Amino acid sequence: MAHIIILGAGYAGLAAARKLAKLAPQDTQIDLIDRNTKHVESIELYQVAAGTAQPDDISFDIRAVIPDRVNFIQANVTKINSEAKTVDFADHESMNYDYIVLGLGFRSENFGMEGADNYSYKLQDIPSAEKIYQVINSNIRNYKNSQDPNDLSIAVCGAGFTGIELLGELIETTKILKAKYNVPEIKITSIEMANQILPMFDAGLAQYAVDFLSKNGIKILTGAKIKKIEPNAVVYTTDGQEEDQRVYASSIIWTVGVSGSDVIKDSGFNAKRNRIVVTDYLNVEDHPEMYVIGDDSASMDPNSGRPLPTTGQLAIAQANVAAQNIAAALKDAPQKKFSYKSKGTIASLGASHGIAEVTTPHLKLKGKTAALAKKFSFEQVLFEVGGFKGLKK
């Protein structure tokens, strides 16, 4: 009897487990392992950070949605021993495997930035998202006593997807908190190193996002290279400016980038930012029984020669092919090369606005129509990882 271990119950791991339950021979043992008992819709974490959603709104019980033949184990992975084909845990005995799927997810990356860990708040899971809202709420409430303008200032470092969607959500949040605590105007500033935000979108759509955020009082600094984070200040420079500049804020949120799980590094794999380069079949060249998907995977784009950007959409697509290939290997059948074409890209700008670019048919959406597309896309992801039970969470 073959034993398959799936590490991580995020988008990649859950989708792989559901697919393997359908395709693997009936005598195959399938274990899905995660340190948490709940699956978190990580693409919606920004809502918890802005206080517009509760943790239960973006999570559901893993055991409630996995197929009966998949065994769920709550355990904290510490190391993968690829030569011995074993996995070590902090709170469970070691386990052997015949095939393994690595889908351990991401962590926030500080890129060695001075002060980032000490003076800013990372958005990477539910506890950190809850902490961000607590800090924002507490600082704004505290203004009446402190009279410190920094308490009414929020700085968001990074204007990628997470940063932009958080900014959009904060528009309504700050209106509510301003009225609740009867304070002056609350300032929100975005600090981004690139000269343009959201370069993956059509230029017109990206400009729509800039205009919408600006009209709603958000200051967007592009071409601003962050040098360090100080207590209550983001220090940055821009081209043509020799002197350091600062955005002062009591609430500093770090959304600059992510890397794969530190388990990758701790296991001694050859990886960059904890992402392992995989073959066209999504496994590791020297260890064909090991498949790496989601945030831990560097799956190369044949056109650009660069790793595909990690998204929930990509993770689910990889999971389906990895599961098919493991099932094929168990049956001594040919494996399938992974080929990826994005269905489109969507970014929300609050609950009722957004921008979207759909691939087939090619559509460009903005405003409320894009917000509806975002909702539909989210429901589709829920179905892919949790089935009908995921939709009813």
Automatic annotation (TrEMBL):
Tagged with keyword Flavoprotein: yes
Classification via SUPFAM superfamilies: FAD/NAD(P)-binding domain
Superkingdom is: Bacteria
- Quote any Pfam family the record assigns: Pyr_redox_2
As one GO molecular function, the record gives: NAD(P)H dehydrogenase (quinone) activity
Q: Which InterPro entries match?
A: FAD/NAD-bd_sf, FAD/NAD-binding_dom, NADH-Q_oxidoreductase
Cofactors, names only: FAD
A GO BP annotation: aerobic electron transport chain
Q: Which residues form the FAD/NAD(P)-binding domain?
A: 3-306
- Keyword set for this entry? FAD, Flavoprotein, Oxidoreductase
- Keyword Magnesium included in the entry's annotation: no
**Family in the record:** Belongs to the NADH dehydrogenase family.
Write down what this protein is called.
NAD(P)/FAD-dependent oxidoreductase
**What is the phylogenetic placement of the source species in the record?**
Bacteria, Bacillati, Bacillota, Bacilli, Lactobacillales
